Amino acid sequence: MHYHPENIEPKWRSEWIKNELYKVYNDSEQPKYYVLDMFPYPSGAGLHVGHPLGYIASDIFARFKRLKGFNVLHPMGYDAFGLPAEQYAIQTGVKPAISTETNIKRYREQLDNIGFSYDWSREVKTSDPEFYKWTQWIFLRLFNHYYDNTLQKARPISELINHFEKNGNIGIEAANSQDSMFTAQDWIAKSPKEKDDVLMNYRLAYRKTGYVNWCEALGTVLANDEVKDGVSERGGHPVEKKAMMQWSLRITAYVERLLNDLNTLEWTDALKAMQRNWIGRSEGAKMFFNVSDKAFKLEIFTTRPDTIFGVTFMVLAPEHEFVSLLTIPENKAEVDAYLEYVKTRSDVDRMSEAKEVTGVFTGSYAIHPFTGKRIPIWIGEYVLIDYGTGAIMAVPCDDERDNNFAKKFNLDIIEIIDRTEYPGALPHSKIGKIINSDFLNGMDVQDAIAFMFDKIKSMGIGEKKVNYKLRDANFSRQRYWGEPFPIAYDSEGVSNALSDDQLPLELPDLDDFQPASGGKSPLARVESWIDQFNGLTLETDTMPGFAGSSWYFLRYMDADNTNEFASKEALNYWKDVDVYIGGTEHAVGHLMYSRFWHKFLYDLGFVPTTEPFKKLINQGMITAYGYYAENLRLEDGRMLIGNSCDLANADNVNVGSPIRLAYITDYLDPQGRIYQQAFTEYFNAFGKDYFVNGDISKYHWVEDEKGEFYFTVNIVQEKMSKSKYNVQNPDEIVSRYGADCFRMYEMFLGPIEQSKPWDTKGIDGVNRFLRKYWSLYFDENGWSVNDITPTAEEYKILHTTIRKVTDDIERFSFNTCVSAFMMCVNELKRLECNKKEILNALNILLAPFAPFITEELNQLLGNKDSVHKASYPIYDEKYLILDTVEYPICVNGKKRDLVTLSSSLTQKEIQELAPTLGNVKKYIEGKDLQRIIVVPGKMINLVVKS
RNA sequence: GCCGAAGUGGUGGAAUUGGUAGACACGCUGGACUCAAAAUCCAGUGCUAGCAAUAGUGUGCGGGUUCGAGUCCCGCCUUCGGUACCA
Questions:
Q1: What would the DSSP string read from start to end of A335-378?
Q2: Closest nucleotide (CA of A931 to C1')?
Q3: Which of residues 775-804 of A touch strand B (CB under 7 A)?
Q4: Digit-coded pLDDT (tens) for A626-636
Q5: For position A348, what pLDDT does the model report?
Q6: Could you give the 3-state DSSP secondary structure of residue A804?
Q7: How far does the CA of A9 sit from the C1' of B13, in Å?
Q8: CA angle A758–A761–A767, rounded 5-degree value
Q9: Whole-angstrom distance between the N-terminal and C-terminal Cα of chain A?
Q10: A514: exposed, middle or buried (C-beta count within 10 Å: 0-12, 13-18, 19+)?
Q11: Chain B bases under 7 Å from protein CB?
């Protein structure tokens, strides 16, 4: 009898489905446990070996918890809205709904192959109207609430309107996007459109014109976390700042709670740090500067009010609203030219090149609040419009950027900090003594900061203020494949929320997915859809990918509910996610938005917890090796330069940048076969095919004096992705070795939170283990398990393994679990142990890792019920105790000898006994024995002075 | 630059609170079985010296604390991840 997974696995797969083995009920008496995976985007490439890493870990954990007696919710679904499906539709005409369905089917097959214990009756798809009905429903609640800063809670917008009618906005402490005051009379006098505009300043989901990340290539706006290094996360297209009317979510209202509640979470420090970083809290002061000959004041934010006497100029962001007001006629031409120049620069330009200092003088002056001096007001792109107030007071002596700016444009620099008494202090650090600063002279920097907070407050020119890097989340996408906004506008442009019974507002069926003119979504062309609510015009933007993913984990709790997103009972029973497993790539996007939505739903009384994910495990990426040729020279001496990521811009790439190796399909050889030859040689060296993802003719050829062909190879680890053609498919491994082997091998690779390159060279070891495990149950005559009572040694092996595996699963150390199983089986094999009591317990122990082989053996062992419904074995200390223990004898920490002692001896007894032992005596004879250190079970250490 | 994580054999990695470093596996070497191969099994395998027992040495580098340091402290180096004209 040999181990044949291909005979075992399909059988149990269908058996489990038939018996609804993994169905979970909400009315259990058992304690609940919620184990969740970050649901995948069903891409056309299918699952690769990286996806299941986290899924396998969570599946093992879920199965373990089930065997431990918990009612475990372990669901799966699909983040089914998104750009790739729509891009695909534009290219091929296949409708996103269709391609998404196809991809989901494929994902499901692949997932089923691996033997996950998901309760598929709770499956969710964010693109399903029955699901996005509730996404829209939550959006409407966000739209209809504002954030009360005093209560630190979301409140209905109707309360705010009541207040406006009685008192205007006087006495309102709310998160808002403006702070001009109005009275009750002002409010009543406003037109509906004006009222709508005012309310937009308070709503948690609101519309405003702002500078957004516009991606021309994708034809849509992106959120900050969807932009990486100045290009779009999806596709790597350039992104520019553009002023547009957009929906936003007021996540900044929750910023303090999002920051403080991090302390309550069992997340890694790294991840919490990322979130803190993204939130970017900094304490400082806002200050107002009078402007010469102008009625308005200029507001700035600074963390260093102590440096006020070092201020020699001011700088505004180019987009600042005062730019035109402050530009004097003589400087207008120059300023306009500068603004024009700034407009042409994308984010990549601003980031990539060496920091070049640019700016222009407006011609206006601010007045220094203490010295009364005139301070020139400049415009510079290093000041960002969306941080602080978009304007700064420049202190060139103590800020590197201000310093560079001052040097470039010959502006004054006044030294105001003396660090000579603090030799270790770095320049620009908050350490030193203030000089040249009137009443601040001689003060310590820290004291001066505190002093200035009070000073500016008492003078009425400013006050303490906390600033954040976190911005409100851009929530509009000019795309088709997303949730439509349940918002319609009247002829005045006043926004109207649809009523709950009009939900879901479904996407219309479409044939043409090209963006509509004016940077609008394809929906803008579908008049019948836009005008379906008589007289009103529907919003044509759709929600971004993170809309559905911000709350999907709640839907699993009660996935079929048609009256609520989930019932109160379900929400109160399952509460929150106990363990959430997923990649770090969602550290600041999905995880931040989910926390925000969850807190909002908590404020409204829908969910019982303030945080959605108690514990978070970050699985590392499974990477692939990427082979890049560097300095690839051809036989005629010319050098091939290029960069696979952006072939269109290959001309701009520097010599030496890596080129992705490519197998050329439509190779345009400019001269002859020689180039073809060069590539072929390279590829043969690796015995693999590579594909070029662009047109070879766009590479740039450079002359070189040497007539040799050579290259250097750079091997890097990189993300698996379809675009890199390095995807490893799990199905091949499963069909060759079986799902059990695949699961255990992925766990055996190393700690789950670590990134590691995919490599199959160790898989035989795991396969050998499974065969060895199987062979414990059989001999040459077949089934050989017997009922003989196990020996003490056999019990010891079993119980050591139970203890090790139980502890290691709890701390998500699955690779060491696999090692423990291997060691256990090796030992049992050595003892030729085929006793039922041992094997039955071991089989349950192994079940979470290898569900198929254990289920088969469980049946052969004569157990009627599934092994996945068994009770997890508990280890018993009594089996771990040995009669004798071999102690190493160490002298001053160095191992010298061994001594065998009874295991019943206490630490103290050994300490007293040790000097009398013969083989200890010889080490202490003639020496000065200071003391004896006994580590029970580990060692006896003699501390001697020689 | 700043924040975070990590550096251990030829390789992946183990060592849970400071206590025999290298578990478990891959690979490699030798052997058994076989006409042969595959598979399987047995033995060896950090490095240096030695036929060997054994001795010395050894967890990125340099110091320190300790009877004892991969683990703790101080100062560096390297790699990876995040982030950046954030005032």
A1: HHHHHHHHHH--HHHHHHS------EEEEEEEE-TTT--EEEEE
A2: B67
A3: 804
A4: 555 554 444 44
A5: 64
A6: helix
A7: 29
A8: 110
A9: 64
A10: exposed
A11: 3-5, 12-16, 19-21, 23-27, 40-42, 67-69, 80-87
Radius of gyration of the CA atoms of chain A, in A: 34
Q: What contacts A443, CB < 8 A, 6 or more positions away?
A: A306, A433, A434, A451
Angle between helices A590-603 and A269-279 (to 10 degrees): 80
Give the Cα separation of A719 and A390 in Å (integer): 37
> How far apart are the C-alpha atoms of A328 and A454, rounded to whole Å?
35
* B61 C1' to A506 CA distance, Å: 64
Beta bridge partners of A221: A214
pLDDT, one tens digit per residue, over A691-719 is 222 233 333 333 333 333 334 444 556 67
**Three-state DSSP class for residue A564:** coil
List the beta bridge partners of residue A842: none
Torsion region of A651: left, alpha or beta (phi above 0 gives left; psi -120 to 50 gives alpha): alpha
Q: What ipTM was reported for this prediction?
A: 0.94
The total number of residues shown for chain A amounts to 946
The answer to whether A346 and A239 are in contact (CB under 8 A) is yes
Residue type, A926: G
Give CB contacts under 8 A, 24+ apart, made by A680-688. Answer: A682/A629, A682/A711, A686/A627
In this structure, what is the dihedral angle of CA atoms A906, A912, A918, A920, given to the nearest 10 degrees? 90
pLDDT exceeds 60 at position A637: no
